[in-house]
Design goal:
Layout (H helix, E strand, L loop, with lengths): L7 H8 L3 H10 L6 E2 L5 E2 L2 H15 L4 H12 L5 H35 L9 H11 L4
Antiparallel strand pairs: 1-2
Helix pairs in contact: 1-3
Length: about 140
C-alpha cells in the first residue's frame, strides 16, 4: 500500500491527539515506532493515524493506558474473541460505576456542608469544621 506520510504535527491534527501525546503513546509502545527521515523526523501513515484515533476514543471513554494496550492488541488481532474485549469493557463499566457512586457520595456530603454554611461575615464555617475534624481522625 502506498501510504501518504505525515509529519507529527499533521498526524496529530488528523487524529485529534496532540504531538506531545503522539510521542508519549509511541514511548509507551501503544503506537509502534514509525519510519524516520534521514534527518530523524517521524513520519506517520494512515494506519498510525487510525491507531491514534482508536487510542483517543478509548481515552475519551476513560480506559487506562494498560486497558488501551490490551484493546489495541485485540483490535489488531483478527483471530480475537469478542469475549476478551467484552471482559475488559465490562470491568471498566464496573470501575466507572464504583467511581460514580463515590463521587455522588462526595457531592451529597459537600452539598450538605454548603447548605449548613451561612456564607456570611461570621468566622464559623461547618465546611472547615468538617475538614478539620476529618483531618484529626486517623486514616482508615
Amino acid at each position: 500500500m502506498n501510504d501518504t506520510l505525515f509529519n507529527i504535527g499533521e498526524a496529530a491534527r488528523r487524529s485529534g491527539v496532540s504531538a506531545k501525546m503522539v510521542r508519549h503513546y509511541e514511548s509507551l509502545g501503544l503506537l509502534p515506532a514509525v519510519h524516520r527521515t534521514e534527518a530523524g523526523y517521524r513520519q506517520y501513515g494512515d494506519n498510525e493515524v487510525h491507531t491514534l484515533r482508536f487510542i483517543r476514543r478509548a481515552r475519551d471513554l476513560g480506559f487506562s493506558m494498560e486497558e488501551i494496550g490490551q484493546l489495541l492488541k485485540l483490535w489488531q488481532n483478527k483471530r480475537r474473541t469478542s469475549a476478551d474485549v467484552r471482559r475488559i469493557a465490562s470491568k471498566h463499566v464496573e470501575d466507572l460505576t464504583r467511581k460514580m457512586a463515590e463521587m455522588e457520595a462526595m457531592r451529597r456530603t459537600l452539598q450538605h456542608l454548603v447548605h449548613c454554611c451561612h456564607g456570611d461575615e461570621r468566622p464559623d464555617c461547618p465546611i472547615l469544621d468538617e475538614l478539620g475534624h476529618a483531618a484529626a481522625q486517623p486514616a482508615a
